[in-house]
Amino acid sequence: MITVIDGPAGSGKSSTARAVADKLDIEYLDSGALYRTVTLLYLQAGRDKTVFFQLLDQAKISFRYCDRQFHVAVDDAAVTDRIRTPEVAEHVSEVAALPRVRTFVNHLMREAVKDGIYIAEGRDLGTAVFPDADLKFFMSADIEERARRRYNERKPDNPALSLEEVRRNIQQRDLKDANREADPLKRAEDAIEINTTNLSFEQQVDQICLYISDLIKR
Ligand code: CDP
Ligand code: CDP
């Protein structure tokens, strides 16, 4: 059984999905973290696509969710913190637009969810990756609110970006994600829309939990 949440950056997908997973004791899958991990390989390859694709073919990417964090490793070395740097955020959308990268990540995800009850979040899960998902949500929120949320989350060990810089990064990523040819950010026709601008975090978590619990009971 799988529930998917799609939506733009900062709309609340990841923190909401994690809270739902913990409340209902189900598995969580963060597709953005996988695109960020692949972007690390791209940066490691000096942004040379030939070298990058060689690294991609050889790399063993593993992941698991525990203690409220989605842990990712490349060849058994943890990269969970390294995938959140501004450099990765700047390049991830251009890497995620490559069809070969999408095929790679989609395969990882489809294999992962074969057993168990999952909640997964990303951009194209309801449209391209899991079109037959049991439940689909599309989360949105105003750009100003999303930028404020991401700005408030910044870690002290990361170079401080201004609110304006954070807003610009989010806006540029949204634009690239929504306009790319390969599986763009898009609301699935059968997705339930949740605008989180004026919702409390608890409200959106409870709303999704209710839908999933109803389905599990049936
Ligand atoms: O957490 P945030 O919303 O900032 O981004 P993320 O979920 O970590 O995703 C990072 C990037 O990965 C997005 O901006 C997209 O370019 C890409 N992505 C994608 O193309 N398809 C997905 N299903 C998930 C993420
Ligand atoms: O995954 P995505 O990029 O869509 O968003 P996120 O990483 O979950 O970040 C959203 C941030 O906004 C988190 O710090 C949430 O606690 C916060 N937030 C929210 O998600 N929903 C609200 N109604 C209010 C705040």
Q: Care to count the β-strands?
A: 8
Order of helices and strands: EHEHHEEEHHEHEHHEH
CATH class: Alpha Beta
Q: Are any ligands bound, and if so which?
A: cytidine-5'-diphosphate
GO cellular component, one term: cytoplasm
Pfam families: Cytidylate_kin
GO molecular function: ATP binding; CMP kinase activity; dCMP kinase activity
Binding site for ATP: 7-15
Task: Please provide a written account of the structure.
By secondary structure, the chain is of the alpha/beta class. The chain has one domain: Rossmann fold (3-Layer(aba) Sandwich). Helix content is 50%, strand content 17%. The protein has a five-stranded parallel β-sheet. Strand 3 and strand 4 form a beta hairpin. The chain is globular, with a radius of gyration of 17 Å. Belongs to the cytidylate kinase family. Type 1 subfamily. It is an enzyme of class 2 (transferase). Its EC number is 2.7.4.25. It is found in: Cytoplasm. One of its GO terms (biological process) is pyrimidine nucleotide metabolic process.
Task: List its traits.
binds cytidine-5'-diphosphate, 218 residues, alpha/beta, three-stranded antiparallel sheet, 9 helices, 50% helix, Rossmann fold, globular, 17% strand, five-stranded parallel sheet
Topology of helices and strands:
Layout: E1 2-6, H1 13-24, E2 27-30, H2 31-44, H3 49-58, E3 61-66, E4 69-74, E5 77-78, H4 86-96, H5 99-112, E6 118-122, H6 125-129, E7 135-140, H7 143-152, H8 163-179, E8 192-195, H9 201-217
Helix pairs in contact: 1-9, 2-3, 2-4, 2-5, 4-8, 7-8
The structure holds cytidine-5'-diphosphate (2 copies).
One cytidine-5'-diphosphate (CDP) is lined by residues 7, 9-16, 149, 153, 196, 199-201, 204.
